[in-house]
């Protein structure tokens, strides 16, 4: 009763109230006694093992779980007993006690300081193969804790100095990485996850069994609130069917009792898919990425998700769409919403810098890509030619095109916009492909993004950043895109709003600034009439071709970052400033740019502050990017400048020779020199 009160009452009130029964039970050793009862059979060495009845195991687990909920510290104490935690996994082989065990394990792992090693679980492979699909989905909830790095949530926020220091300490793979490898070694594991992720709602079985589970175990979900919502829907549907046939009401009620309402089935399936997609997503981002990619393609995860897109993933909200108490349909914690975000994250990690991304299209769309290349008289991308047509999406549209459709219909303030833009951008990432860009341009993506940035004057920083990044990938080196841009941004007023959005936060827009700078540089070197025409007409290119504008961007990009505050998110500002200087170096203008920076410092009455900072940043750049583990192909792909040229430029800028016209030190007066400090990992 105390646990029930805790789960159904408002959590806050519950935390203030005390639970004398569970407290007393634990105080006098009840918890330890239950652990002893459960583990007793494993301690006996006699030939004839003692067998505990399922009901007793169930009761022990329920009491333990309820005590964990109500009394602080119990869960932590159990988590410290490694033998008990591993023992709990062995109880999962029993179908009757599976749910109670799973829920207790999940609670315990949530507070455990040290991540468990999956390979320590006795007979893990046979345990997993004994699960039915429903159990496997529930097991994914537990796996999620064991394969995710503990603090990935704020990855972008950690300074790179701290991360680099941490990496030096951790020489071997982390526990999460070892656990990922353990899972991938279980035969058929990924295949079963793909089946679970792509099965249709109608294929789910065991409905009455599910109702029975709910009755006996109210907390199989995060809390009873979800269950209340489920039950409410069930009752609504039951009432509907009984009013429809009131004369045979007796009959109607019995049939509803045994049949699970459709909306509940859908909810159940959404809960499962959520867990499964999360695990697949983590595996796709891990060390064994290529192996996972191959399996996911082979087991047709992408076409399967494509077939579920309208009916389940992006389904229209029904009138009684399930929402937790006190929440609205669009708040980020409803299962429907979490599923959509998880799905978009999966798409993002699936297509990011990987040639399997073309599986997101169907055969006609792939033919369209080939036709675009043919018409433009450029060679087809190898990855398109090599895509196995038996593994691509089927149906009228591929997954990417469906995503574009919902993206255009998304309300302005929707939290999905960020994830949608990220997913489409990752499709474009890597070496720039004209055909990929044209495919999306033909579908009105550029106009949609500009509408959001300029006409709806989007305010959300995250969404703006994802739109600028996407716009950069979409327009890079593509003269048609700049032409379209000019057609849409056709008044000075619109152009000014666009510039204000860019200037409002360079950390968010610097990738777009980089794209415009690189594109302008390439267009200027081409002798094509069409290019010359766009160069003269396009507001954006004319703006960027002014030396003063490029200098202003360079000055601000260097000024907003410092070695101590560099993160994964803002280090791109440093790389963008380097791109501007590399292009200057190609035209022998490097001394001119450095001299101008020096003059700008004097205008600001603060000589040395920009160049000293830039010197430190570049030294950090060398430490960070010349590390043997660092992948430099991203820098090469995004800029079409060889990594050797990046390295040379940084070396020239850092030269200690004060007579060199390309060395930063030549532009800092002796009195203001401040470049010898070493940065520590504080």
From TrEMBL:
Stretch list, region Disordered: 237-257
An example Gene Ontology CC term for this record: Cul4A-RING E3 ubiquitin ligase complex
Residues in coiled coil: none
Gene Ontology MF term list: phosphatase binding
GO biological process: ubiquitin-dependent protein catabolic process
One Pfam family linked to the record: DUF3689
Domain of life: Eukaryota
Protein name: Transient receptor potential cation channel subfamily C member 4 associated protein
Organism: Chelydra serpentina (Snapping turtle)
């Amino acid at each position: 009763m105390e646990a029930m009160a805790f789960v159904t009452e408002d959590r806050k009130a519950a935390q203030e109230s005390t639970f004398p029964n569970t407290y007393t039970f634990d105080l006098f050793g009840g918890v330890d006694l239950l652990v002893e009862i459960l583990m007793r059979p494993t301690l006996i060495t006699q030939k004839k093992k003692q067998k505990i009845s399922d009901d007793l195991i169930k009761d022990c687990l329920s009491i333990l779980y309820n005590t964990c909920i109500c009394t602080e510290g119990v869960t932590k104490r159990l988590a410290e007993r490694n033998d008990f935690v591993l023992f709990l996994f062995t109880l999962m082989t029993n179908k009757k006690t599976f749910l109670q065990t799973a829920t207790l394990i999940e609670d315990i792992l949530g507070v455990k300081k040290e991540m468990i090693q999956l390979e320590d679980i006795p007979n893990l492979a046979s345990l997993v193969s004994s699960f039915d699909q429903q159990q496997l989905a529930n097991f994914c909830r537990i796996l999620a804790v064991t394969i995710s790095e503990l603090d990935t949530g704020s990855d972008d926020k950690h300074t790179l100095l701290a991360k680099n220091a941490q990496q030096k300490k951790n020489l071997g793979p982390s526990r999460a990485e070892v656990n990922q490898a353990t899972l991938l070694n279980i035969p058929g594991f990924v295949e079963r996850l793909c089946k679970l992720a792509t099965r249709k709602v109608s294929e789910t079985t065991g409905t009455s069994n599910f109702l029975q589970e709910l009755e006996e175990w109210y907390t199989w979900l995060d809390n009873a609130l979800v269950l209340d919502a489920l039950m409410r829907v069930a009752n609504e549907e039951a009432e509907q069917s009984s009013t429809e046939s009131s004369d045979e009401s007796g009959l109607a009620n019995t049939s509803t009792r045994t049949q699970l309402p459709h909306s509940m089935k859908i909810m159940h399936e959404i809960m499962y898919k959520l867990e499964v997609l999360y695990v697949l997503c983590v595996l796709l981002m891990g060390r064994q990425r290529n192996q996972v990619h191959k399996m996911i393609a082979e087991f047709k995860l992408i076409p399967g998700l494509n077939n579920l897109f309208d009916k389940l993933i992006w389904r229209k909200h029904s009138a009684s769409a399930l929402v937790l108490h006190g929440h609205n349909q669009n708040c980020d914690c409803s299962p429907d919403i979490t599923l959509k975000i998880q799905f978009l994250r999966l798409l993002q990690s699936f297509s990011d810098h990987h040639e399997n991304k073309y599986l997101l299209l169907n055969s006609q769309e792939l033919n369209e890509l080939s036709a675009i290349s043919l018409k433009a008289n450029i060679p087809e991308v190898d990855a398109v030619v090599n895509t196995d047509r038996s593994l691509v999406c089927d149906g009228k549209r591929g997954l990417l095109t469906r995503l574009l459709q919902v993206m255009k219909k998304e309300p302005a303030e929707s939290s999905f916009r960020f994830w949608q833009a990220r997913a489409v951008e990752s499709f474009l990432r890597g070496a720039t492909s004209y055909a990929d860009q044209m495919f999306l341009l033909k579908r009105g993506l550029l106009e949609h993004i500009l509408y959001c940035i300029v006409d709806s004057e989007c305010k959300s920083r995250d969404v703006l950043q994802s739109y600028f990044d996407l716009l950069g990938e979409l327009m890079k080196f593509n003269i048609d895109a700049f032409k379209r841009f000019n057609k849409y941004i056709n008044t000075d007023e619109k152009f000014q709003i666009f510039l204000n959005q860019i200037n409002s936060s360079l950390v968010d827009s610097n990738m777009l600034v980089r794209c415009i700078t690189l594109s302008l540089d390439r267009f200027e070197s081409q002798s094509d009439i069409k290019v010359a025409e766009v160069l003269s007409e396009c507001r954006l290119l004319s703006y960027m071709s002014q030396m003063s504008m490029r200098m202003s961007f360079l000055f601000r990009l260097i000024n907003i970052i410092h070695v101590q505050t560099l993160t994964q998110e803002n280090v791109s500002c440093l790389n963008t400033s380097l791109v501007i200087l590399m292009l200057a170096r190609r035209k022998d203008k490097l001394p001119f740019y450095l001299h101008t920076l020096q003059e700008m410092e004097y205008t600001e009455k603060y000589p040395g502050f920009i160049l000293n900072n830039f010197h430190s940043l570049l030294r950090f750049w060398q430490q960070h990017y010349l590390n043997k583990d660092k992948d430099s192909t991203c820098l090469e792909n995004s800029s079409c400048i060889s990594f050797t040229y990046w390295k040379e430029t940084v070396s020239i800028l850092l030269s200690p020779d004060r007579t060199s016209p390309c060395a930063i030190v030549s532009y800092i007066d002796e009195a203001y020199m401040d470049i010898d400090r070493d940065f520590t990992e504080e």
